[in-house]
Amino acid sequence: MASLCERLVLFIDILENNNLELLQSKLGIKYDNTEKLIEALTHNSFVNESKKEEINSNERLEYLGDAVLQLIVSELLFELQPNKSEGDMTIMRSHIVRKETLADAAKNLDLAKWLRVGNGLIVSEIESNKSILSNIFEALIGSIYVDLGYQSAKNFIVTTLKDKIISVQNNEVKKDPKSELQELLQSKKISKPNYVSKVVDPIKNIFACDLYVNNQLVSSSKADSKIQSEVLCAIDALTIYKQKG
Predict the structure, then answer these.
(1) Active-site option among 66, 127, 147, 236
(2) 180 noted as active-site residue
(3) pLDDT of the chain along its 245 residues, tens only?
(4) Which of 32, 87, 95, 196 places its Cα 20 to 30 Å from the Cα of 39?
């Protein structure tokens, strides 16, 4: 694990000497415009502490990368699962694009040590923060799509998420997460989960969902359909209750 000083030295080398070959080799991607790669690795905290107005955070690329990821995984499942229903494919997609899966992919690529952040964050904190890691991964997808196009983004997603995609194809995801959660709670003699969903962006058709158990908020999510937002909440809740034992 690189220390903060080591990471700062690494970034001086990367940015001042334009030496991004090492990271691109690790990613299996050769950018036409490496500025998009640097932008994908720039956390908002770094921008807030910088005095350079031309520096952009990775938030816009993250937004785009999320949409590209959803589309490509949907397309893959549509092609690979011709006999599956919309509901089945939605569940499969939710397992593939969930925060934990993307965070694991980011860890495998060792992205935490390449992220430009403000002074308040260090590598060890980033490596344990699934939200930051998954956001980096989505921003990276966005940068590949903008710089190199759809097919390059698709190739990257297939390569980095292939194990999860294969596990879905092998029917390791056998049960609707909402049904599985309800059965788990029943076995623990806990009341049924309550899903509260609403449209938060009618133009982009974005839904937000909060999942409550015994009137306590357990998980929250956003997605481009009511079903998926609830499924994502159920998946996160399952993880929480299984960890409790």
Answers:
(1) 66
(2) no
(3) 444 444 444 454 455 444 688 889 889 999 999 999 999 999 888 888 777 667 889 999 999 999 999 999 999 999 998 988 887 888 889 889 988 899 999 999 989 888 888 776 666 677 778 888 999 999 999 999 999 999 999 999 999 999 999 888 776 565 678 888 999 999 989 999 999 999 998 887 889 999 999 999 999 998 888 888 898 899 899 989 888 87
(4) 95
Structure tokens, 23: 């990271």
Structural contact between residues 72 and 153, judged by C-beta atoms closer than 8 angstroms: yes
Whether this prediction's pTM lies above 0.85 is answered by: no
| In the chain, where the domains are located | 7-170, 177-244
What angle separates helix 86-97 from helix 226-244, to the nearest 10 degrees? 50
Residue indicated by tokens 């001042």: 16
Fold (topology level) of 7-170: Ribonuclease iii, N-terminal Endonuclease Domain; Chain A (1.10.1520)
Selecting among 138, 147, 230, 236, the annotated active-site residue is: 138
- From CA 243, how far away is CA 245, in angstroms rounded? 5
CA proximity to 74, closest of 62, 63, 90, 85 = 90
Q: How far is CA 33 from CA 11, 38, 56, 96, in A?
A: 17, 9, 15, 29
Q: Architecture of 177-244 per CATH? A: 2-Layer Sandwich (3.30)
Residue 66 bears catalytic tag:
yes
